[in-house]
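Field guide to reading this record: the first block holds the primary sequence, the second block holds the structure written as discrete tokens, and the final block holds curator observations. Each block starts with its own label. This record concerns Glycoside hydrolase family 97 protein, catalogued under organism Flavobacterium piscinae.

BLOCK 1 — SEQUENCE
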Amino acid sequence: MNYFIAFFSLLFVGITNGQTLKSPDNQLELIFELNQLGKPTYQLKYKNKSVIQPSNLGLVLKNNDNLVDGFEVINAKATSFSDKWKPVLGEEKEILDQHNQLIVELLQKATGRKMNLVFRLFNEGLAFRYEIPTQEKLNYFVIADEETQFSLTGDHKAFWIPGDYDSQEYSYNETKLSQIDVDKLDMNNGIGMKGPMAKSRIQSPVMMKSADGLYLNIFEAAVVNYPIMHLDVYTKSFQMQSHLVPNAIGDKAYLQAPANTPWRTIMVSDDARIILASKMVLNLNEPSKIEDTSWIKPMKYVGIWWEMHVGKATWDYAGSQNAQMAQEAELKPTGKHGATTENTKKYIDFAAKHGFDGVLVEGWNVGWEDWFGNWKENVFDFVTSYPDFNVEEVQKYAASKGVKMIMHHETSGSVSNYERRLDRAFSFMKKHNYDAVKSGYVGKIIPRGEWHDGQTMVNHFNYAVERAADYKIMVNSHESSRPTGYHRTYPNYIAAEAARGNEFNAWSVGNPPAHETILPFTRFLGGPMDYTPGIFEIKMSHYDATKKEQVHTTLAKQLALYVTIYSPLQMAADLPENYERHLDAFQFIKDVEVDWDKTEILEAEPGDYVSIARKAKGKESWFLGAITDENPRNTEIALDFLTPGKKYKATIYQDGKDAHWEKNPKAYSIKTIEVTAKSKLKLNLAAGGGTAISFFPM
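BLOCK 2 — STRUCTURE
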């Protein structure tokens, strides 16, 4: 580890009320000052151009107490840090953490209380947080607000979703900052449970682009024992201020010194690819707390899931029987239950035949007849299966085929019930050889009055991952708060949903073609997503002639998503019979890796297109994914990321000549050519389309 202290002459001479700090490449400059009221402020410059104008910092405590003004600087220290570390699973074999740090120690003269501001400048952005050291004048305290401001320099184009305390499952809006207005959005969007919202409150991360071509992103990292940060936007002044999600009685966070807030991050570059390649959020999280990580493995899986979304099967066993009937009488099967022993064996056979690691089964356990919308505490016990699902038989059959089973724990939002049963549920999993769980939090939270994004729930999501690690279980959370890099600290947090996934295309307005070109600049910055790509039967009218819903991509784009969406847990989400009709295209899903040694961001423009190439972990094979929005796109890709001097067989899965996400989504063609690092490929992407390419050394 290279960690050395360097007192830069450019920072300060003695202790003053103003300091500056530059990034390792000298392109970014932080300026910290105390104003005349002793209020801490900061500003940020990129290539000598203002990015964040002077903005206030501070913490408001409960009972009209504050840590926002009346400060003096009692010490300031600058250090440089450079080190490399290896993620357990990831987009890179090795990650460089290189930054310059400034710690400003503040004393509030009137109260004698101390607060530190810690700034870190990476080449791609700024991170800062508040630290409350151990002290006599401040021990237990309650955060009422956080006066963290981001004063932007203009009316930037922004990609944003509403600041809903309970859901991130919205399509992104692309507007100027001045045009942000939640009241104008169509809320008939398939989200079954919405939380409080405000006219100009949005969620972080928010991606922006200035009129002169500068890319900016405001987010956070390492959210631990603290609520999620949303952003209040002042649409006339182009200023944002942190908005912390409250608990049931309106408080934001309960802390005890020593304590720190999450990191607030501002990424900035004149090249959009730098934003996507950034590992700043990961670097701001603590190293792995799991000593033996040998049991944490990447997975490709299939499962009993999509057939419920398209109406072929149901999660419940007894259909419309009400709760009282379910409790007082023997359940009577409807014949549409998906999670049967027989059906599960079919998926296991399919997984074994095509080389998939696991099978997910949803709806295996009792309780689905009365699980949603009633704010009911005791819904699932996570150990009792329906009569037509034999846990032991399925376990033995999967083991005989070399396939792992993935457990499903839907909590229906009843977190108190889940925590009471968590150890029994994990013990049941290990007894039956389940090493991974998909957890779900659909519905209003119990304890009642809490929100998905509040401190209580952030602590629960983190605790569930930590407890799972004790059992050597990997976690894929759905309807959780969005990740902020915590999977570095607990790498068994293998994936999460926390955004609008592919499922919405089956039964709602669906995801616009631009959706997957925005997610890499927003949700994916915090961690891998279980997006569930790979839908081949695009139009839902295939299952019901009256349905008009469809996936808003071409089939070729569904393949490309396996590369442009990073996740060490990837699902082939469609039905086995749909893949069997297109085994030539299905070959790419079978071939594509999910853990990587190297990632190259080839092209990127938020809301328009993304092209990414990745090298498989420990292999010479590469995979490329290129996607576009609703507009067709022609581009040429240089293959200089390939190893020089080697020849590769490139199999290209591309849109057909007349392909179109709406009019002709299933038109595709496949060709194989020989290429080297000196080759260039012309790609023709249809509207809402994409191209997927595998490169195997010859």
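BLOCK 3 — OBSERVATIONS
Residues 415-431 form the longest helix (17 residues).
Residues 1-15 have pLDDT under 50 and may be disordered.
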